[in-house]
């Protein structure tokens, strides 16, 4: 056994021992929690019992005005009550509508709004839910440093990362990311942090800092950054600033910003305001120019880890752990915010980016006679460098396909983040003229995105390339959770064309792999990192709620940070770092989301809810033309059904509705109020008839034209 593996074995043994020692404690805590959650809440006078009583009282209250409304209804349209020929009670329909609306709301508001439920034992209140009264009573400590996560904590999916740090009216912002919406949000492409609170506090902002150039950290720049203008410096590494500038250059009005490029290896302390300064520390991730940020405050240094991974044999400059350890030992981190993405993945990174490169070379050797199409994330510049090197060694040429791919390589070249061998890169339109065995294409689409290059190559929608049986397609990526079905669809399409598909994590099929290296640290990497940096206080960030919780458990149970020095916070929580270097939650800021479609246009939440409703139940429009004098129908009502029933097959039901409408419009309508009342009644009755016939309650829209 050499020294290295001996040290490794010792470290693991220590880790296991630490865990074993704490096990009885952990068990006890777990049991306590169980008791608290299940008994205390439901006990007489408990939280949940009170809640039930409150709901009952509210329901009673709501009943009274309903009667009033019924009375006014008969007054508005006297005598026009028409008997509906239905078998279901109205209550059944109302129940269906209520359930539907609850489903729609739940689907359309998975992001954090209001006060989220957080009864974690690390929630800062010993597991008790934060209340409105507590928030109202919160008074800021004027000597506290306030750390406010604006996005990125406990959302569905990972993204929208943004943190504010404030001290006595001076504020800095770190990262401005987007969150990609999932299929639950029809027509929404991404979300950005709602900027209402930011708007109100804009004058306080002294500097904006970026850890790295992934979209979950810089994607919202186009929407948020222009407000700050040239008086607020924007700090980042050359590649990060290059990517931000590229994004801003796509705006119709390119804002005049004050960009400051940082070389983190210089260990320079940047003064941001009277009391706050920052230092960027070089860290490794799946993108060039990645950093952690140390913010020095009057109450001690705060480390924001950003995204990071451990690598023993990196292609990039090795991570500057020494500097972080130096700061930890000399100054001591008062608070560490640590990312949580891969906290659920055991162990540590088993291979390096060089291994991925070697395996890409192996693909080129084993499938030497055909075209090789390599699909990866466009920000994985080092992986692209591998492809270029392996191709150059074999006399292959490389072309890039996809807007973001070409963009990123350009920015990387300018920031000197990529080494490119001579005469390897060619334009797409030129490379396709070469013989197949010379062609290598690097493209986007590894996540099965329908509109990305790879899928276009499958369907034949791509301008230059159609996949054929002699092609080999390499997926240098892991599926982002949730994307698996889409990726399978793409792989199916490729295999149907007879092509060879080589995916990461399927080494047993082709004997080639690994073809990917995750950008985020694994569990044991976190244990080592946090143990080495021994922060006084700890706050997981950059993760879904379960990741934050597991990260906190790791810090307490394995690293040994006391529970009252760990916080599982949500977007909007105000975390105070006090002069005595303790932390607490003290109030909340309002947080929310702005939703955007793929044309960067804002989508209102109400529109999303309508879309979900329509996708489930459809839409049904009745158009009535009635006489001003008699109130009678002048012609047969027009009926439009979309995403609901097919009219040609539903004559009986349509007949029933026309019959109802004729009977309903038998009386004079004098005022606008009468028209409104009539509309409301038609809406309700038609919904009831449709529900009776189909079990669904589409959105019913009555239109009344008076002539
Ligand atoms: Zn990242
Ligand atoms: Zn990230």
Topology (SSEs and partners):
Blueprint: H1 3-40, H2 47-76, H3 90-108, H4 132-137, E1 145-151, E2 162-167, E3 170-174, E4 179-180, E5 190-193, H5 196-200, E6 205-209, H6 215-218, H7 221-224, E7 233-236, H8 238-249, E8 258-261, E9 270-271, E10 277-282, E11 291-297, E12 300-304, H9 321-330, E13 335-339, H10 353-366, E14 372-375, H11 381-393, E15 397-401, H12 403-414, H13 428-431, E16 439-443, H14 453-459, E17 472-475, H15 484-496, E18 500-503, H16 507-510, H17 523-533, E19 537-541, H18 545-559, E20 573-577, E21 583-588, E22 593-596, E23 602-603, H19 605-617, E24 619-626, E25 638-642, H20 651-664, H21 672-694, E26 699-706
Parallel strand pairs: 3-6, 6-7, 7-8, 12-13, 13-19, 14-16, 14-17, 15-16, 17-18, 24-26
Antiparallel strand pairs: 1-2, 1-20, 2-3, 4-5, 5-22, 9-10, 10-11, 11-12, 20-21, 22-23, 24-25
Helix pairs in contact: 3-19, 8-12, 10-11, 17-18, 20-21
Bound molecules: zinc ion (2 copies).
Task: Give a structural overview.
By secondary structure, the protein is an alpha/beta fold. The protein contains 21 helices and 26 strands. An eight-stranded mixed β-sheet has the order 8-7-6-3-2-1-20-21. The longest helix is centred in the N-terminal third of the chain and has 38 residues, at 3-40. The radius of gyration is 30 Å and the shape is globular. The model is unreliable at 37-48 and 65-79 (pLDDT under 50). Bound molecules: zinc ion (2 copies). One zinc ion is lined by residues 161, 214, 216-217, 307, 542.
């Amino acid at each position: 056994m050499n020294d290295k593996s001996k040290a490794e074995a010792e470290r693991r043994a220590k880790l296991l021992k630490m865990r074993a020692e704490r096990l009885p404690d952990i068990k006890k805590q777990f049991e306590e929690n169980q008791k608290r959650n299940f008994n205390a809440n439901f006990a007489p006078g408990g939280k949940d019992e009170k809640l039930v009583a409150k709901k009952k009282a509210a329901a009673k209250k709501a009943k009274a005005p309903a009667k009033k409304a019924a009375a006014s209804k008969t007054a508005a349209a006297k005598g026009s009550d028409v008997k509906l020929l239905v078998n279901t009670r109205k209550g059944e329909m109302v129940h269906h509508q209520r359930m539907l609306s609850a489903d729609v709301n739940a689907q359309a508001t998975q992001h954090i709004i209001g006060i989220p439920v957080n009864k974690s034992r690390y929630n800062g209140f010993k597991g008790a839910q934060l209340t409105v009264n507590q928030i109202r009573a919160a008074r800021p400590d004027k000597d506290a440093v306030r750390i406010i996560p604006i996005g990125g904590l406990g959302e569905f999916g990972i993204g929208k990362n943004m943190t504010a740090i404030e001290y006595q009216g001076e504020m800095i912002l770190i990262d401005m990311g987007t969150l990609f919406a999932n299929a639950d949000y029809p027509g929404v492409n991404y979300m950005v942090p709602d900027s209402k609170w930011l708007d109100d506090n804009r004058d306080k902002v002294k500097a904006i800092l970026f850890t790295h150039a992934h979209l979950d950290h810089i994607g919202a720049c186009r929407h948020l950054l222009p407000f700050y203008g040239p008086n607020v410096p924007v700090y980042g590494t050359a590649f990060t600033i290059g990517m931000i500038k590229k994004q801003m250059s796509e705006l119709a009005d390119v804002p005049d910003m004050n960009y400051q490029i940082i070389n983190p290896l210089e260990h320079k302390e940047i003064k941001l305001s009277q009391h706050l300064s920052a230092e960027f520390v070089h860290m490794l991730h799946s993108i060039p120019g990645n950093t952690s940020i140390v913010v020095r405050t009057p109450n001690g240094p705060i480390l924001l880890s950003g995204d990071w991974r451990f690598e023993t044999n990196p292609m990039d400059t090795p991570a500057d752990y020494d500097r972080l350890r130096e700061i930890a030992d000399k100054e001591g981190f008062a608070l560490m915010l640590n990312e949580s993405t891969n906290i659920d993945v055991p162990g540590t990174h088993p291979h390096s980016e060089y291994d991925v490169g070697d395996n890409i070379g192996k693909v080129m050797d084993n499938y030497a006679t055909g075209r090789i199409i390599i699909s990866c994330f466009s920000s994985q510049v080092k992986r692209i460098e591998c492809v270029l090197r392996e191709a150059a060694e074999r006399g292959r040429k490389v072309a890039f396909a996809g807007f973001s791919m070409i963009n990123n390589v350009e920015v990387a070249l300018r920031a000197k983040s990529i080494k490119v061998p001579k005469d390897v890169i060619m334009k797409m339109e030129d490379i396709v003229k070469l013989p197949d065995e010379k062609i290598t294409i690097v493209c986007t689409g590894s996540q099965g995105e329908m509109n990305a290059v790879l899928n276009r190559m499958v369907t034949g929608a791509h301008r230059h390339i159609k996949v054929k049986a002699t092609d080999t397609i390499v997926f240098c990526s892991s599926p982002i959770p949730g994307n698996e079905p889409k990726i399978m669809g793409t792989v199916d399409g490729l295999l149907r064309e007879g092509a060879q598909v080589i995916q990461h994590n399927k080494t047993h099929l082709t004997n080639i792999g690994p073809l990917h290296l995750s950008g985020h640290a694994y569990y044991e990497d976190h244990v080592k990192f946090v143990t080495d940096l021994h922060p006084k206080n700890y706050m997981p960030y950059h993760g879904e709620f379960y990741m934050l919780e597991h990260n906190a458990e790791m810090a307490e149970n394995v690293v040994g940070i006391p529970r009252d020095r760990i916080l599982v916070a949500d977007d909007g929580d105000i975390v105070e770092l006090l002069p005595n270097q303790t932390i607490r939650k003290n109030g909340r800021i309002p947080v929310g989301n702005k939703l955007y479609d793929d044309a960067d246009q804002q989508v209102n939440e109400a529109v999303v809810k309508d879309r979900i409703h329509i996708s489930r139940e459809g839409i049904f429009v009745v158009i009535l033309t009635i006489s001003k004098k008699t109130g009678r129908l002048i012609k047969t009502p027009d009926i439009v059904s979309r995403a609901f029933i097919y009219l040609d097959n539903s004559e009986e039901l349509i007949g029933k509705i026309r019959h109802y409408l004729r009977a309903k419009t038998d009386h004079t309508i004098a005022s606008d109020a009468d028209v409104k009342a009539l509309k409301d009644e038609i809406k309700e009755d038609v919904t009831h008839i449709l529900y009776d016939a189909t079990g669904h309650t589409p959105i019913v829209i009555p239109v009344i034209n008076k002539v």
